[in-house]
Structures are given as structure tokens and as C-alpha cells.
Write a structure and sequence with these properties.
By secondary structure, the chain is mainly alpha-helical. It is built from 28 helices and two strands. The chain folds into two domains: about 325 residues, ABC transporter involved in vitamin B12 uptake, BtuC, CATH 1.10.3470.10; about 290 residues, ABC transporter involved in vitamin B12 uptake, BtuC, CATH 1.10.3470.10. The two termini are about 50 Å apart. It is found in: Cell membrane.
Length: about 675
């Protein structure tokens, strides 16, 4: 028996994970000593920890603010890392986590709705609402991705769809409750600031329950790691076990987010790092994840506290973890082939949801008819109103035309941009927002506006285009090792988007009175557009579309692959850069006019492809018609759905896009 115990102990102390955990533990102890040092010098170390002097402000501040924050950082990091390790093990997916599978977004959406709309009498049910939101989101992701040929990729893709849909819903509620905007925004970004021990007392017992259950189920977890068939043959009740473990993982996540907001990437990066370091057994992975996650978030939060300084600026801890954790995911993708290779082009035959010619006719008629309806028909919540004349007829038509044409032009520009990125990258899942182009463009513009005071549209367009181009070049370099395979391009793009999104959140916390306007712009709104700006972007889009159509034959060759294109005489590297440059300029132009939009650049080329637009020229024109129609409909709905209140057009477009991909995913089951 002693020999078995000795072997178990030797297996538990893996060299790599032990060194990582010990290093973080030493840093955490050093942080605690650093915070305590002024009191230790005065001989008041024990007093400030347990019985602070109520007449000493520094002791009160440390005991009721700094110390609870340190404790909460460890508890939240430990809980999220444990939840991530359990989810990764159950789903046998090294990229699964509460962040990537929509759990965090589901909890955030449920809590946002609950906090803004629920009466005070329902306050005790806040945690139940959070748990329900996380479970529903995870269930939707699992249903979409189950029984797929490449479940690993589909889990991440389904998580992205659910994340975007729920984040759009959260933004809608925030924009309609502007009085709570700043506080809810900071909470959603992950804020560990404390003013007492209430949050610690709320999270700690729930974490202990979750830890106890997950550790008790660690041995059955090892069976699940062998596969469902093997686990079933060994007597495990796979479905019940999976639901039980996932349920407690979501319970831990919901508890943490309820108290501290959305803190991403701890649940993904920590277990993945420990697996790379050599951990294989589930029990050891859970324990090491618990400790390493707690120490890691404590160290990250210490860095955040130093960045905040004394000037009152706040850097959200959740944004900082994404900024640190997302590059680690890129490192994982470069170090290990975690998914089997696939062909990078979609070679499935046309699905013919509707014929190409009929679709073209319907889209043209829809665009013309929709334009007339958008300009002259509105909805007041009860009846349709027709604009026929009057003193303000000219002004109303001008205002509607500015917004309608802005939406149409942006839809066309993003459709062309997405088509170019998909064809040159030979990746049907690529688009300006998924590859980070839209996020980089928005970030560059926000930094130029907030930190450097750029106000001219021409300056912002130039800066935004430069940001988009740099983002594309970085992504292509990251994926060059894997010949731009779809899943690596997608996952690296999502990680890059997370990094850029974290920086955007940090920049927004420093934007002061501009926060509300910038969040509205980030949601994609036509409200601030002017006709002269619309005409400029329309001219840029038309000119670049003509250029792209003129090079449609080389574009067709580029979609065959690098080797074949080179053998046919095409200088593929230079041509790829040229096309990506055009795609970035188009995305930057649309982003400047309306703001970053989700799913239009992905949905329009995708729908055009499956409708039969295969050749480059037809693919471009089909995508333009689809993108213009989608954005025109989204703009009318945004203007009239909740009249007199108006929704951001980008959020409606995102909801249309997610609904389409959910339908497509279910249809392909």
C-alpha cells in the first residue's frame, strides 16, 4: 500500500506543472507581502489582517478593500480554471472553456436582463437566473456541434455564434438603460474591486461545493476522456455524468460572474497550459488548475492595480486577462496540432436553397422595393405610416436616405471584403470580423480619437485602414505554418479578436463622456452618418469593386491554392497582399461610416456560395446584393421595431446573421 501511495504522490508532482504552480504561488506570496509591508514595518501586520484599527484609514482600506480583492482574485481564478478543466475533459476539447462555449456570455446576458428589469423582490433569484443563462447557452452550443465530423471546430464555431448573439442582446439592453451604462459595462468587463467581504462570502461556499463535486467525479472523468463507447463499456453512465459535471462547471462560472463580472481566458489558458506541461490524469489536472488559476488571476490583478494608479482610471481585470490569455491560445495553436488537417476550401456541391438566377432577380427586386419602403414607410408600434408630403417631407426623406444608403453601402463593402478574404484565404469561415479586421479598424479609430484627438474622417479612415491591414498581416503570418487551414485561421482570428476587444474595453474606460457615443458606434449605428460621408464611402466601394472585378481571373486562380496558382503563373504572395489590402480598406470604410458590424461579411459570401455563385465575378456580385439587402432590412427594423426608440443597425444585422447560421447548422445536422 505504501508503494502505491508513493507512486501516486510521484505522479502527482509533475515537474512542469509543479514549477509553474510554485512560481505563481511565490509571486502571490510576494504580492501579499508587498501590500502588507507598510503595516509590517509598523508592527500592525496581524491587526490589519484580522482586527483593523477603525481610526486608521489605511488599515480600513486594506482590510475592507485590498484584502477582499486579493481573496476574490484567487477564488475567481481558481473557480474559472477548475470549470474550464472540467469542461475540456468532459468534451475532450482543449479549446473549450466558459468563454469560448458561450457560458460566460449566457450568464452575462441573463444577469444584465435580471439586474435591469427584475423587481427588487426577485433579488434572491439572481443566481438562479445566471445559472439558467449559462446552461441554456451551453446547451445550444452542444446541440449545434453534436454529431459533427469535426466536433472540435464546430464547438468553437457554435460558441462564437452564441457569443455574438448574446453579446448583441446584452448591448441592446445596455443602450436602453444608459443611466446604468458605465457601471454595468465595467461589471461586464470583469471588475474585482471590493468594498467589503460580501462577495467573498457569496462565492466561497459555492466554489467549495463545486470543487468537492468535481473532485469526487475525477475518476469517472478519466473514463470520459477515453471516449463515450469505451466509458459505457466500463460501466459509466456517460450522459448523466456529462450533464452533472457540466452543470457544476456552469454553476461555478455563474457564481463567479455574478460577483465579479466576465473574466475570460483563465478557464481556457490555465488547463491548456497544464496539459502541455504534462498533466494527463483528471484529478491532478483539477487540483493543479484550481491552484494555478487562483495564483495566476491574483498576479494579473496585481498588475492591473498598479496600472490603475492614483488617477482614478480603471482597467477592467476581465479585459486584462483576455489581453494576457488570448496570446497564449495563439501559442497553443502554434505548438501543437490539436485538430486534424482539413482541406481549406469548401468543395461541397451547390446546395441550391434557391436557384442562382431566381435569387438574383429576387435580390434586385427586393433592393428596389425595399429602398422605396425604407424611405416612405415606417411603423409606429401599431400601424404602418406612409410618408406622402408635408412641410417636413424633404427633411424626413433626406434623413432616412442618409441612413438607408449608409446601411446599403456598408453591406456591399463588407460583402466584398468578406468575399475577398474567403477566396484568397480559401476559407469559407473567414470574414472581416472573425479575422480581427473589424476589431483592429475600430481599435485604431478609437485610439486615434480618444488619445490623439483625431477628428477628421479622412484621418480616421487612414488610421482605421492601417489597423485592419496590420491585423490581416499578423493573422496570415500566424497561420502560415498551417497553410492557412480553415480551423487554424478561425481560431487564431478569434484569439486576435479577443486581444483587440480587450484593448477596446480598456480604451473605452478612458473615454470619459464619450463612452456612450462610442459604445453606440461600436454596436453599429447609422444615426451619426451624413450624406457627404455616404457618398465618399460609396465612391471608394464602387471603385474597389471595379478593380476587384477586373482581376477576377487571378482571384479565381488564387482560390485553387498557392501551388496551383504559382504553376499557372500567378505571383501569389504579392497578389494575396494586394487583395487583403483592398479587403482591409473596404472594411475600414464601412467601419468608419457605421461602426464594426458582425456577420455581414461572413453571411453574404457564404449565402452567395451555397446559392450557386461559384466563379469569382458572380460570387462578388451575388454577395454584394445579399449584403446590401440584409443591411437595408436591418436598418429599417432598427429604426422601427421599438419606435420611438431606435436600435443600432449592427446589432440587428448580428441577430439576423446568428439566426441564419443557427438555421444552417440545424439544417446540416
Amino acid at each position: 500500500m505504501s508503494g502505491e501511495t508513493s507512486r501516486d504522490m510521484s505522479r502527482f508532482f509533475y515537474r512542469g506543472p509543479a514549477i509553474l504552480c510554485l512560481a505563481l504561488a511565490i509571486c502571490s506570496v510576494a504580492i501579499l507581502i508587498n501590500d502588507l509591508w507598510p503595516f509590517l514595518q509598523k508592527g500592525a501586520g496581524m491587526n490589519v489582517l484580522f482586527h483593523p484599527d477603525e481610526t486608521d484609514f489605511d488599515q480600513i482600506l486594506f482590510h475592507f478593500s485590498t484584502l477582499p480583492r486579493i481573496t476574490m482574485a484567487f477564488i475567481c481564478g481558481a473557480g474559472l480554471a477548475l470549470a474550464g478543466a472540467a469542461i475540456q475533459t468532459v468534451l475532450r476539447n482543449p479549446l473549450a472553456s466558459p468563454t469560448t462555449l458561450g457560458v460566460g456570455a449566457g450568464v452575462e446576458f441573463a444577469l444584465t436582463v435580471f439586474l435591469l428589469l427584475a423587481p427588487a423582490a426577485l433579488a434572491p433569484f439572481k443566481e438562479a437566473a445566471a445559472l439558467a443563462g449559462g446552461m441554456i447557452a451551453l446547451g445550444a452550443v452542444y446541440l449545434i456541434a453534436s454529431r459533427r465530423a469535426n466536433a472540435t471546430l464546430w464547438l468553437i464555431l457554435a460558441g462564437m455564434i452564441i457569443n455574438l448573439m448574446l453579446q448583441s442582446g446584452t448591448q441592446i439592453f445596455l443602450l436602453f438603460n444608459e443611466q446604468y451604462l458605465q457601471s454595468v459595462f465595467m461589471w461586464g468587463a470583469g471588475d474585482l474591486a471590493q468594498n467589503g467581504w460580501d462577495s467573498t462570502q457569496f462565492v466561497l461556499p459555492r466554489l467549495l461545493v463545486g470543487v468537492a463535486v468535481v473532485l469526487l467525479l475525477s475518476r469517472p472523468l478519466d473514463l470520459l476522456a477515453l471516449g463515450d463507447d469505451t466509458a459505457s463499456s466500463l460501466g459509466a453512465r456517460v450522459t448523466i455524468l456529462r450533464l452533472l459535471i457540466l452543470g457544476f462547471a456552469v454553476f461555478i462560472t455563474a457564481s463567479v460572474i455574478s460577483a465579479a463580472g466576465l473574466i475570460g481566458f483563465i478557464g481556457l489558458a490555465v488547463p491548456a497550459a497544464l496539459r502541455i506541461a504534462g498533466l494527463t490524469r483528471s484529478r491532478d489536472l483539477m487540483i493543479y488548475s484550481l491552484l494555478t488559476g487562483g495564483f495566476a488571476l491574483l498576479c494579473i490583478d496585481f498588475i492591473v492595480r498598479q496600472m490603475n494608479g492614483l488617477d482614478g482610471d480603471i482597467v477592467p481585470t476581465g479585459a486584462a486577462t483576455a489581453l494576457i490569455g488570448a496570446p497564449f491560445i495563439i501559442l497553443i495553436l502554434r505548438k501543437a496540432r490539436i485538430m486534424p488537417g482539413q482541406q481549406s476550401e469548401d468543395h461541397h456541391p451547390d446546395q441550391h436553397i434557391v436557384s442562382k438566377n431566381l435569387l438574383s432577380l429576387l435580390l434586385i427586386l427586393g433592393l428596389v422595393t425595399g429602398l422605396g419602403l425604407s424611405l416612405f414607410v415606417s411603423f409606429n408600434g401599431h400601424d404602418f405610416l406612409f410618408l406622402t408630403g408635408g412641410e417636413s417631407f424633404h427633411d424626413i426623406v433626406l434623413q432616412r436616405s442618409e441612413r438607408t444608403f449608409a446601411a446599403i453601402i456598408c453591406g456591399a463593402a463588407l460583402a466584398v471584403s468578406g468575399t475577398l478574404i474567403q477566396r484568397v484565404g480559401r476559407n469559407p469561415l473567414a470574414s472581416p470580423e472573425i479575422t480581427g479586421v473589424s476589431s483592429a479598424t475600430a481599435l485604431a479609430m478609437i485610439i486615434a480619437l480618444v488619445f490623439f484627438g483625431f477628428g477628421q474622417r479622412a484621418e480616421l479612415m487612414f488610421v482605421g485602414a492601417a489597423g485592419g491591414i496590420i491585423s490581416l498581416i499578423v493573422l496570415l503570418l500566424l497561420c502560415r505554418k498551417f497553410t492557412h487551414a480553415p480551423h487554424y485561421l478561425l481560431l487564431n482570428g478569434l484569439a486576435l479578436t479577443a486581444i483587440l476587444g480587450a484593448i477596446v474595453r480598456i480604451a473605452l474606460t478612458r473615454s470619459g463622456t464619450q463612452t456612450s457615443m462610442l459604445i453606440s458606434w461600436l454596436a453599429g449605428t447609422t444615426y451619426f452618418t451624413r450624406m457627404d460621408e455616404v457618398l465618399i464611402v460609396a465612391g471608394v466601394t464602387a471603385a474597389l469593386l471595379v478593380v476587384v472585378i477586373a482581376v477576377r481571373r487571378p482571384l479565381e486562380l488564387a482560390s485553387f491554392g498557392n501551388d496551383q496558382a504559382t504553376s499557372l503563373g500567378l505571383g501569389i504572395s504579392g497578389f494575396q497582399f494586394f487583395i487583403m489590402l483592398l479587403a482591409a480598406i473596404l472594411a475600414a470604410s464601412a467601419t468608419l461610416l457605421v461602426g464594426p458590424l458582425s456577420f455581414v461579411g461572413l453571411m453574404a459570401p457564404h449565402l452567395a456560395r451555397i446559392a450557386g455563385y461559384r466563379l469569382a465575378g458572380g460570387h462578388l456580385l451575388g454577395a454584394v446584393l445579399i449584403g446590401a439587402n440584409v443591411m437595408m432590412v436591418a436598418e429599417w427594423l432598427a429604426r422601427n421595431m421599438l419606435y420611438p426608440q431606435q436600435l443600432p443597425t449592427g446589432l440587428i444585422a448580428a441577430l439576423i446573421g446568428t439566426a441564419y447560421f443557427l438555421f444552417l447548422a440545424i439544417r446540416k445536422r
